[in-house]
Structures are given as structure tokens and as C-alpha cells.
UniProtKB/TrEMBL annotation:
Keyword Metal-binding: yes
Alphabetized UniProt keyword annotations: Metal-binding
Database matches in PROSITE patterns: VOC
Keyword Metal-binding appears in the UniProt entry: yes
The organism of origin for this protein: Alicyclobacillus acidoterrestris (strain ATCC 49025 / DSM 3922 / CIP 106132 / NCIMB 13137 / GD3B)
GO biological process: L-methylmalonyl-CoA metabolic process
UniProt protein name: VOC family protein
Family: Belongs to the methylmalonyl-CoA epimerase family.
InterPro entries associated with the record: Glyas_Bleomycin-R_OHBP_Dase, MeMalonyl-CoA_epimerase, MMCE/EMCE_epimerase, VOC_core
Molecular-function GO terms, alphabetical: metal ion binding; methylmalonyl-CoA epimerase activity
């Protein structure tokens, strides 16, 4: 199945302090801004287009969110790489046939309708990879 780069998720302490760099220095355009309140997500998101690339700044909304835990361990920076697929269920099944494991609890629809799941980092040599499908 064809996969295409979709976005980078970047963990930040404060979106308002980080946005000027992406907007003014890199020349990005703020496409959307929202809060995901789903348990196990809890994050403010700023979606930015920089050229033909999409970046999501992710600011945790509580100390126990996955982004907050990530930043305690690794600091700010790239949290995940996302790839768009035309059919999420099919992409999951194909990957599982190749021995890829998933964080099954991450399968969900986000606040903007994107369906997604994260691959287990043991299957990806340590990189958190999201597969996503748009409605």
C-alpha cells in the first residue's frame, strides 16, 4: 500500500513561545489550532504548513499526558513521524503480516477527524510512527 509523508509531531513546552519561530523564521502558515482532550492524549495542537511540509506543535495539557512524559525523558523535539495511508485498516493488517506491532490503545479519531494509530517503537528501531487516514 502506498504511504506518503503527512507530518512531524514536535513536542514543545509552550506553543505561543514556539510559534513565532515557525511562522516568522521558517515562513510557515498557521493552518489550525485546537485542544485534544481525549484521555491519553491531552494536548494543545498548532498545525503549521511550512512549504509543502506539515508540522504539528504539541503542548501537553497535563503532567501525565504522553507528550509530557516524552518531554520529561527526552526534552522538546520531534515526537513522531506520520504517514498518510488511503485505508488505515488495510495498512495495519499489511504491517502486522510483516511482524509490526502497534500501540493498539492509540487507535482513534482525532479532534479534526483524522483516524490514526501509532506503531510500536520496538518494531520501528525506536522511532514513533503514526499511520493516519483522512475522511
Amino acid at each position: 500500500m502506498e504511504k506518503a509523508f503527512d507530518h512531524l509531531g514536535i513536542a514543545v513546552r509552550n506553543i505561543d513561545e514556539t510559534l513565532p519561530f515557525y511562522l516568522h523564521v521558517l515562513g510557515g502558515v498557521l493552518m489550525d489550532r485546537y485542544t485534544a482532550e481525549t484521555k491519553g492524549v491531552e494536548v494543545h495542537v498548532a498545525a503549521i504548513r511550512v512549504g509543502d511540509m506539515h508540522v504539528e506543535l504539541l503542548e501537553p495539557t497535563n503532567r501525565e499526558s504522553p507528550i509530557a512524559r516524552f518531554m520529561r525523558q527526552k526534552g522538546q523535539g520531534v515526537h513522531h513521524v506520520a504517514y498518510r495511508v488511503p485505508n488505515l485498516e488495510q495498512a495495519i493488517e499489511e504491517a502486522k503480516r510483516e511482524g509490526v506491532r502497534f500501540y493498539e490503545e492509540t487507535l482513534r479519531i482525532n479532534a479534526r477527524g483524522r483516524r490514526l494509530i501509532y506503531m510500536h517503537m520496538a518494531s520501528t528501531s525506536g522511532t514513533l510512527i503514526e499511520l493516519c487516514e483522512y475522511p
